[in-house]
Each structure stands twice: as structure tokens, then as C-alpha cells.
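note to self: dont lose this again. the chain is below, predicted strucutre after it. 166 aa total, dont forget to put it in the shared folder this time
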Amino acid sequence: MMHTIRTCVLMLLGVLLVSCTTTQERESIALPEQRPSDFTLGIVVFGDSDAQATESRSARYIIEPDGTLRASFGEGSGGLTYPPITRRLDGAELDAIWDRVRSLGLGGDDWRFVRAPEQFHTQMGSERGYLLEIRSEVLFSAWSTDADTRFIQTLTRELASLAWVT
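---
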């Protein structure tokens, strides 16, 4: 009896563990051409808190539907961080960010779908990576990559610039 209960508990823990990590399966994501009114973006840069290049520095960015940009940098800028308000972006700036997000190639070989972003950590042995959370048209998805592509570097550099970080 005790063996059966222990086996059930271990199986349940295994299922929970698998559901809280990244998956290699590709989830298709079709982002609309025009920025939705509920567009929300969250990015965590898992990098070096002392890096000179802003796109390599540990950071957390959140853009809310009303254009509020929140940003934090350095240690403690993880996925559970809710940064202070940095500034409010206008419609043109939000549209430019939306276009950048659409150019990232989510669902491609460099990106992994993340089922539970609040429990995400970079891959073992990797100190660099990105976690991207998108809400658009009531849909939510999260993606991760450890690839330093030109597209994600450009997006994080632009967000740092909008947050007045040099």
C-alpha cells in the first residue's frame, strides 16, 4: 500500500516537473500585423550584471498595454521581478517594439516554448539567455532562447535605450 502511494506521488511530481519546463515541441504563434490594444511584453535577459553592452546585461523589461515601461538592471532582475516604472511610451514607440517582436521568429529553431515562465531558469551550464512573454489579443505565450541573435539583441538594446540606460 505504501509503495503504491509513493509511486503515485512520484508520478505526479514527474508530471508537474515536465509541465513546468521548456519543451522542444514547436507551438505555432501567429502575431497579427497591427499591434493589438492589449499588447503586453515581458523580457528577462539572463546575462552578466556587470556587462558593458546593454543587450548583455542582466535585465527585466515589462511593457504594459497603456505604454508603461518598467525596467530593472543587474542582480535581482529575474522573471519574478516587477520593476519600477521608467517612463510611458507613445503609440509609435509601441508599434516599433511590436514590429521587432514580430521579427524574432518565435517558433523557429532558436526558440523554445515555455509552459510556466514564473518557474523558468536558463539551461544548465548556460549563463546567458532570454525569456520572452507576450500577451496579445487575450492570448499569452512565453518563449526562451539562449541564442544571441541579432534580432533579440536589437530589441533588448532598444528597450534599454527607451529606459534611458547607456
